[in-house]
Amino acid sequence: MRFSAKPISGLVLASAAGLLSSATQAELISIGDAQIQFANPIFQDTGSDRVRLYYPDASGNERSMVTNAGRFSSSASTDDFDADIFYEDADLVYMYCVDLYQSVSSGWSVSYDVNQLTDTGPNTLTENQHPERDFDRTLSFLGALNYTLAESYSDLGFGQSNYNWLNPTANWMSGAIQLGIWESLYEDVGNSNFAWDISSGDFRVASNGGSGNTMDSRGAELLARTFANIGTAGADALGTQYALVLTSDRYQDMIAGDPPAGVSAPGTVGLMAAGLALFRRRRS
User: Fold this and answer.
1) Measured between alpha carbons, how far is 254 from 262 in angstroms, rounded to an integer?
2) Dihedral (Cα; 139, 143, 146, 149), 10-degree rounding
3) What distances in angstroms separate CA 87 from CA 63, 222, 226, 256, 268, one per listed residue?
4) CA–CA distances in Å: residue 152 to residues 176, 184, 228, 229, 279
5) Residues contacting 165, CB < 8 A, separation 6+
C-alpha cells in the first residue's frame, strides 16, 4: 500500500487529516517549553534538496511523498530556561525535522516541548500512526557525519566539531544531512541488510531509475561515506549533551543543537526520581 501526499511550501505534510496524537517519551527529559519562530524562507542560507521519499507507517505500509529536505532556520523564546541553550543562540536556531507525519512551514510560530536525550536511554519516541523513532541511531549517524565532514571535506572548511551537522555549506549537503537523519529514525533496525542505506529498505529516496526527484549525487556520496564510517574508530556517536529534541502534538518534531552548558544537565537519578521536568541553565 502506498500513500502519496502533496507538499505545502515544499515541506512534509501530515499524512492525513486528524492523525495527530501525543508522543510517548522514553528516557527523554523535558526542560520546558519554547516558542519557535520559523524563518521565511525556512531554508535560509543553505537551501534544500527536493526528493521523493518512501517511508513506513505504524502498520508497516509504505507511503510516498515529494518534499524539500534541508536545515531549518528559526529563532526561539522561552520562559522556563535560557533560550541561548540553542545552537547558535536564541536569535538563530538551526534544526532538522524528525517527523514525517505532521507539518511546519515558513513563518510559522510553534510552541514546542524541549527535551534532552540521556545516556541511560533508550532515546525513543512513539505515537499513533507513527513508527517508533530511535534517536540513539540518530546520534550514531550525526557523530559519524561530524567525523566524515572533518576527514573528507576539510577543503570546505570543516574541522573536528560536534556541530558540523548544523553547518552545511550548500543545498546538497543540507538535504543529505536531513535525509540521513530520517534514515536513522525510520529504517527497520532489525533488518541488517538495510541498516544504513538511503536507496533500499523501509526508508529510502527515489533512485535514478525511479520517478524523478532523486537526491543530489554529491549528497549521496556524503551519506555513503558517513554510513561506512559508523562504528569505526574516531566516528563516535554524538554525545547526548549536544542535541535537543523538540516535540509537539500538532506540528513536526525537530532536533536542534545544544551548546555546552555551565552547569550539569538534569540527568541524575535524584532529579529523575523526583520527577522534575523544568530547570534553568546558564551558558558559561
Assistant:
1) 24
2) -110
3) 33, 23, 23, 7, 23
4) 15, 21, 13, 11, 39
5) 142, 145, 146, 149, 177, 238, 257
66 and 50 in contact (C-beta within 8 Å)? Answer: yes
Neighbours of 125 (CB within 10 A): 22
**pLDDT tens per residue, range 14-44:** 333 333 344 555 578 999 999 999 999 999 9
Strand-pairing partners, residue 282, are: none
Q: In the structure grid, which three cell numbers stand for residue 163, read together?
A: 556541530
- What is the pLDDT at residue 193? 62
CA distance 215 to 233: 28
Residue linked to cell 532523486: 214
Residue 85 phi, psi (nearest 5)? -70, -15
Facing residues of 247 across strands? Answer: 113
Q: Residue 77 pairs with which residues in a beta bridge?
A: 35
Q: At what angle do helices 171-186 and 217-229 cross, to 10 degrees?
A: 50
Quick check: 214 pLDDT over 50?
Answer: yes
pLDDT of residue 192: 63
With a CB cutoff of 8 Å and minimum separation 6, the contacts of 268 are none
Which region among 66-75, 242-251, 259-268 has the lowest average model confidence (pLDDT)?
259-268
pLDDT digits (tens, 9 = 90+) for 82-131: 999 999 999 999 999 999 999 999 999 999 999 999 998 889 998 767 88
CB 220 within 8 A of CB 198: yes
| Pairing mode of beta strands 4-5, 62-69 | parallel
Phi, psi of 261 (to 5 degrees): -105, 160
* pTM (two decimals): 0.84
Comparing C-alpha atoms, which of 185, 204, 169 is closest to residue 255? 185
CA distance 219 to 225: 10
Q: What span, in angstroms and rounded, lies between the C-alpha atoms of 66 and 139?
A: 26
Of 255, 251, 209, nearest to 11 by C-alpha is 251
